[in-house]
Write a structure and sequence with these properties.
This protein is mainly alpha-helical. The chain has 10 helices and 6 strands, in the order ββββαααααααββααα. The two termini are 63 Å apart.
Length: 338
Amino acid sequence: MAFRRGNEPGLATTLSTSEPEPELYAADASGDDSEGDSPIVLPSVPPSKTNSLIEPVDNPAPTVKMSSTSSQDTQDTHETGATTITQPTLGPLQEKGPGQESSEFEPVDEDDPQNFDLTAPAHEQYSVYSLESRSVQLFSKEHLEIIFSEPSLLLKFTNYLSKHRSQSIPMLIYYLDALKALRAIAYANAVSEGLEPLGGHDFTHHAPEPSKNSSLEEKTAQAFDVLVREDLPAFITHTYVNIVSLSIQRRITGTLAPHLREASEGLAEVFCLTDCSRPDNPIVFSSEEFHRTTQYGLNYVIGRNCRFLQGPKTSPDSVRRIGEAVKLGKEHQEVFLN
């Protein structure tokens, strides 16, 4: 009986695991038993005695033959009994919590331009961490005000600007000097309000009007807005890059704290590559973790610009900065709220 190996679709041969028979071959009529003139005849073997990975071939030949078959023939005749190996389906990005419907983690419908969110808002009775809310707070004026109010945080912020964004130092000095002037005015108003009236001097009984410089206040606010819009995102991005780089380094060297291993799982595997030489800078490669994190499939992602990830609260300044860096061919890091 002829068999075909399951892992060698291009070869056909006759194999047997039964005990050899005394009469292994027969010579031809001329008595010449040279190689290639008379075929070797093997006894038939029940399929139960053959290897489980070898499947019978239809119309088996009675001779031992080693021959290459075409790819078309292989497709027509090859069968295997081996277990089919399938790729595992990617699991959900998050575990569903109480009160969450099964459709909340489905990808967005590209036909609905109003739908930006992959996950529906949580019900009011459940307290769920909101990445969107935290991102808004992270890049807000209130966050930079906290940094300026804490000497240790302000020192880190100013050191970062001095080392990595020297072009922002003049704006920082302008803002700090304008802030000093406003505080000086506030101090003068406080002192004038504390003046006590004197007997026999009527003019001392009328408190002076508080001083106010609207133009200076406006200029101070504009300088602060520039720091919030341009320098705060750069400082946050720099901090994130350092944290991620250190986490990956310690994970590789085996020195990462156990409670941080799961939190940073797959951190370096979420990425996509684009081709800046093509029109609209399309995505040409994306990792499996990228699809698992964004919940967009490969067929949807490849060939598109990354802007399809943007949402209603994506900062236009972040989009502008990375677009300018791409046009100039400069290295740039940016944190986006998608």
